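Tokens in:
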């Protein structure tokens, strides 16, 4: 097929506007028609029709300079009929008629585009059909459909929307950013827990889910609960000791007010009982002090066991994504809390919506065997390495369960995670770039990548401005001493000055396939990969200096975007043998050159500053000891974040 024919061909739109021929739009239109008929469209069928349409245009418009958009649609219909895809033809034809009617009714383009939202609601037919939706769920479902179309019609620039629809980029949370919803957040709950009960703490976390579209992370839960646990223990001890002394009649001979005053000054749950010897008038009284301590400790431990269990089960039942990290509080309270976390995780069935993240370093390596046991038994737990060359700091780094990493901050010299968020993620379809430039020069690849990066940067800036223009009063739960620097935010003020501490992430989807396509020589692939990542990081650095906002790259983990982009690419380019049996693009760590090269894996994780996951697929027969050895080897190689998948899990 001669490329220059399509390069020179001009499409005349209904308005008379003339634009360059874009074959991707044809593929999108054909795929949309197939998707409206089949739940799982066959990409090979879509690709077959797409190729026939292009071949027809090539043969019949070789000596013509223009083609009308209506003619392109007629050709699509003809090819669908010729291929005997009659249901798809009918769907495509009916859709054309609907669009024609709406264009007659609405003179403005945005108005007739918005009509699509009403049509989608009508097509869903939820209000008049049998279903299991709750009443509020129907309202939310319809509301989000309308908001999504408002965003597409009035808020997002058509250039970015076109690149998204055609599969060059993927705008995550398309329908959420216009609402002002943030993506992921490491919520700071220190202030909240000082003045509220544990039940209220759980309720508050659930409520936050209405204002966050992605994951809510409770950072360093063992540190967060330390003071709350201490205060709870002291209250219980005072209550028990007072009651025991009264029952025995010894309350008449000791100064309870002084004892209470001393207990309230304790800074650890391990009391030094010799400090209370002045009040131990006899061995009986000493026994009372010790018994009260023992019973209080057991009561506090049991209460916190139930509280943690209720916390995890309660959050898991919300169908929102939560995570919590633990492992680095080394005092008596921290040790007790971490043991409770492990006990609860061991007792519960695998949590689907709550992930535990164990933060490993040399000081808590004794826990690793127990953590490995949880992993082998299928519990939802990830491990983060605090000892890497890029995670060391006076503050602890925090990851989300999808590997997203927030630490460095252009607006602060001190790296930190707590109270910071991902504002938005927009991904680049690197596989598409690889397919486009497979037989081209690397210079042309970088030129196109530069163009796509600029598009993504500007789209993320639009998202930042859209969210940043919301004010504190638009939120019931966020920005109440739980987000970094939000104490500076007064009622009615725009949240821009607070969320500037968050991250704008450029996702890398299909980078593994891109490298395979651009460089056939495996021995040279690692070098090319590093060059691409360094190029991306240099661009992000220039964006940070230009905008004073935190632009970083990351590799999305198990993203719906990856599946959608692959489906579209298969429709356009056909089903290549490398991806024939796959439904989404691979992680970069599945490059053959990286297999068992853990040092290089660590180098790649270091370069993907916004975070990525190295996933370990577990054999059913793997032992705890073997897993522990593997993890230590990986961490010694500077790998920062590990996830685990049993072979039975798909």
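Residues out:
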């Amino acid at each position: 097929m001669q490329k220059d024919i399509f390069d020179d061909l001009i499409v005349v739109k209904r308005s008379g506007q003339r634009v360059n021929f874009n074959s991707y739009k044809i593929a999108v239109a054909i795929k949309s028609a197939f998707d409206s008929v089949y739940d799982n469209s066959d990409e090979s069928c879509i690709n077959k029709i797409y190729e026939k349409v292009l071949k027809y245009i090539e043969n019949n418009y070789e000596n013509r300079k223009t083609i009308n958009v209506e003619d392109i649609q007629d050709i699509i219909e003809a090819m669908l009929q010729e291929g005997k895809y009659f249901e798809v033809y009918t769907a495509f034809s009916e859709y054309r008629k609907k669009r024609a009617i709406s264009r007659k009714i609405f003179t403005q383009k945005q108005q007739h585009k918005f009509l699509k939202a009403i049509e989608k609601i009508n097509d869903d037919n939820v209000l008049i059909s049998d279903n299991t939706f709750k009443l509020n769920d129907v309202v939310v479902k319809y509301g989000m459909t309308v908001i999504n179309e408002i965003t597409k019609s009035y808020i997002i620039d058509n250039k970015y929307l076109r690149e998204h629809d055609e599969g060059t980029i993927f705008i995550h949370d398309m329908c959420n950013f216009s609402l002002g919803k943030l993506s992921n957040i490491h919520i700071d709950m220190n202030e909240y827990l000082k003045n509220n009960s544990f039940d209220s703490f759980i309720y508050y976390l659930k409520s936050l889910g209405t204002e966050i579209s992605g994951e809510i992370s409770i950072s360093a839960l063992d540190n967060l609960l330390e003071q709350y646990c201490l205060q709870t223990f002291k209250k219980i001890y005072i209550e028990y000791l007072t009651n025991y002394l009264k029952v025995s009649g010894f309350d008449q001979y000791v100064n309870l007010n002084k004892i209470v005053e001393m207990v309230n000054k304790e800074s650890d749950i391990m009391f030094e009982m010799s400090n209370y010897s002045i009040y131990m008038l006899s061995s009986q009284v000493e026994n009372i002090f010790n018994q009260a301590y023992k019973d209080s400790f057991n009561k506090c431990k049991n209460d916190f066991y139930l509280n943690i269990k209720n916390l995890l089960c309660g959050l898991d039942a919300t169908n929102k994504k939560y995570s919590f990290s633990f492992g680095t509080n080394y005092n008596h309270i921290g040790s007790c809390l971490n043991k409770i976390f492990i006990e609860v995780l061991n007792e519960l069935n695998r949590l689907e919506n709550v992930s535990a993240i164990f933060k490993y370093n040399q000081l808590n390596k004794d826990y690793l065997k127990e953590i490995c046991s949880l992993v082998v038994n299928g519990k939802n737990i990830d491990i983060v390495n605090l000892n890497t060359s890029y995670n060391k700091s006076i503050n602890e780094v925090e990851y989300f369960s999808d590997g997203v990493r927030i630490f460095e901050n252009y607006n602060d010299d001190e790296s930190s995670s707590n109270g910071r968020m991902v504002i938005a993620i927009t991904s680049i379809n690197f596989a598409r770039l690889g397919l486009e430039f497979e037989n081209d020069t690397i210079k042309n690849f970088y030129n196109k990548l530069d163009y796509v990066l600029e598009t993504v940067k500007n789209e993320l800036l639009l998202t930042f401005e859209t969210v940043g223009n919301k004010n504190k009063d638009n939120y019931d739960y966020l920005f109440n001493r739980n987000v970094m620097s939000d104490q500076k935010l007064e009622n009615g003020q725009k949240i821009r000055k607070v969320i500037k501490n968050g991250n704008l992430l450029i996702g890398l989807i299909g980078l593994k396939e891109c490298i395979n396509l651009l460089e056939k020589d495996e021995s040279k692939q690692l070098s090319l990969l590093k060059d691409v990542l360094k190029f991306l990081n240099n661009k992000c650095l220039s964006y940070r200096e230009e905008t004073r906002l935190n632009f970083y790259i990351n590799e999305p983990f198990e993203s719906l975007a990856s599946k959608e982009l692959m489906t579209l690419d298969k429709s356009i380019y056909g089903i290549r043998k490398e991806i024939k049996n796959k439904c989404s693009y691979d992680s970069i760590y599945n490059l053959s050159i990286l297999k068992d090269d853990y040092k290089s894996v660590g180098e790649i994780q270091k370069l993907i500053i916004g975070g990525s996951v190295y996933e370990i697929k577990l054999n059913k027969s793997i032992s705890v000891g073997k897993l522990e050895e593997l993890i230590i080897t990986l961490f010694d190689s500077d790998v920062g974040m590990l996830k685990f998948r049993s072979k039975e899990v798909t």
